[in-house]
Amino acid sequence: MAGRGERREPPPPGLLVVDKPAGWTSHDVVGRARRLMGTRKVGHAGTLDPMATGVLVLGVERATKLLGHLALDTKSYLATVRLGLATSTDDAEGEPLGDPVDTGRVTESAIAAGIRDLTGDIAQVPSSVSAIKVDGRRAYERARAGEDVRLEARPVTVRRLDVLATRQDGPFRDLDVLVDCSSGTYVRALARDLGAGLGVGGHLTALRRTRVGPFTLAQARTIEVLAEEEETAGRASLSLDLDAAVATAFPRRDADADEAAGLAHGRPLPAGGRAGTVGVFGPDGHVVGLVADDRGAARPVLVLAPA
Hints:
Number of strands: 17
Number of helices: 7
Structural class: alpha+beta
Distance between the termini: 30 Å
Helix content: 10-25%
Largest sheet: 10 strands, mixed
Oligomer: single chain
Mean pLDDT: 92
Shape: elongated
């Protein structure tokens, strides 16, 4: 193991699935992971709000090239919606918009009807403090500068919006919910719209991402655990090496030695007859790259193995 002052060898490529702590930005996690892994070559696939916790996928070394190809278009969350008050950011970090409204007379059937209206294929107006760009600037930058930010509704899919528990807290009604949704869905906008539809206002008080694409909390580790690994072993370990990452995220195709050598040099393979991106593995069991059928051949999308 290298001493603290010695230059370390770069880590192997792969994915690090982190259980992001509350209060950290995604960039904060990347910065800490760079120190824990001993490399500057760390990037993240998608972001989580500072208030949120849960699954954040990081790429390390050559696996950073993989991040843009991962199918992370479905996500799952556990969240708490507070009915009875709207806020400027649609979450607990914003300023109250008006006074609390007593939710004691809001019926369970009315809540169920409101949830049905927000389930399926819907048009959702993102929060004004989202990261969507408006004329080249993030919406949250404009909102925090005092501008009146108005975003267009966009199509999203909420496959599941289930109430797991309810609690009355003074005038407020808190709902613990499970959400399965498409990428681009804002859970805090669901809280806002549910409260608005019930006429009492609503905002998000807690958000935990439990899954993004095929990656779940079962693979995620906390910053504290990663720091302990770095302290004892000199470096935190990957959640998935490059081979396991590709096998988890993509359909698999096994290639013979000649095909693997050709793909390593950027040459196409015979068409495989599968839609979408496929991971190609050589006879040694290691990933060579990603391909996709196009114009009668399986053409390289990303070469991962050195030629």
